[in-house]
Amino acid sequence: MSKTMLAAIGLTAGLILGSAACAQTPSAATPNDYAKADNWLCLPGRADACATDQTTTIVTADGKASSEAFKPAANAPVDCFYVYPTVSTDPGGNSDMTIDAAERSVVEHQLTRFGAQCRIYAPMYRQITLAALRKVMMGGQAGDAALAYADVRDAWNHYLTQENKGRGVVLIGHSQGSRMLLQLLKEEIDGKPVQKQMISALILGMNTPVDAAGKYGSIPTCASASQTGCVVSYVSFRSSSPPPAASRFGRTDPQGLRSACVNPAALVAGKTQTDAVPLQAYFSAGGMGSSAATPKPWAKSVKVTTPFVSAPGLVSGRCVSAGDFTYLSVDVNADPADPRVDDITGDLLVFGQPLKDWGLHLIDVNLAMGDLVALVGEQSKAFAAP
Question: Which domain holds residue 53?
Answer without folding.
Answer: 3-384
